[in-house]
Request: fold
Amino acid sequence: MTIREQTEILELGTLSPYACTCVGNAKRSRPEPKCPYRTEFQRDRDRILHCNAFRRLKRKTQVFLSPVGDHYRTRLTHTLEVAQIARTIARALRLNEDLTEAIALGHDLGHSPFGHSGEAILDEICPYGFKHYLQSVRVVHYLEKKGQGLNLTFEVKNGIACHTNKIAATREGNIVRLSDKIAYINHDIEDATRAGILTPTDLPSHLTAVLGTDKSQRITTMVASVIENGPDEIRMTKPIKAAHDALRTFLFSNVYTNPVAKAEEEKAKGLVEKLYGYFIKHPEKMPDEYKQILRRFDLHRAVCDYISGMTDGYAVDLYQQIFIPQSWGSR
Reply:
């Protein structure tokens, strides 16, 4: 009996009846030989962790565009915080921690540069529209490994696709959906405080009385609420959810639309729009892997794939190379 088979038996014997075990699940689009050591969901986690799109998250914006300072969140640090919260909940509920971690690590792989402002302009100018959660599935299905994709299991891809606003097919996927909300609300408060947009006393006192006065207390309260509600339906208890939703509304009014947080947004949108138009006219200037996407799909899909995969810094550098005059002799 292999180590993987022993792990699968352990899953069946120890996990909750609500858990998604590898036995009977974890099907891939392309069948592959089994690993002697790792379960299918463990393999998915490792494939995501080692892929190019995951590494690019370190230079993609979370809320503040191109922040000055080492401690502001990026898409990568956000992803790791989501994974930590999700694993805590999954373990406490005896659900499949490996599946939960794989979904969490992959949930933002398709996010555009410049945060949600980049997503919004791509959604506007691409004829297919653009949603980062669907692009994340596209990344793992088509774009990684030079068009081969990662061949992830159905459950992981479903959890990635549903992490923003849909009910996933597994409890583990729904844990990630909630963990994403718990993570970004709390770390965005911390980043906004660091940026001078908020002070701790600005948070409504009736909400901090319920959720806690600092990040650690709030995360603990929200996580405990999900755990206490149990695995039958992955959600916060009603009082905590109401406070969470009210806090989210407060952030939209005071942080996400704040002029300081959005100071560079119009520039970022203009940059993405200009790059998009340029590569529609000059597809031969794209890297070879996106020319292959063009032949496999079409021009708009290839250009959208290329731009959405860029980091903030890469997009800025490319824009400067294409549109900003350079001194003679500097090439």
Summary: The chain has 16 helices and no strands. The radius of gyration is 21 Å. The first helix runs from residue 3 to 14. The mean pLDDT is 94.
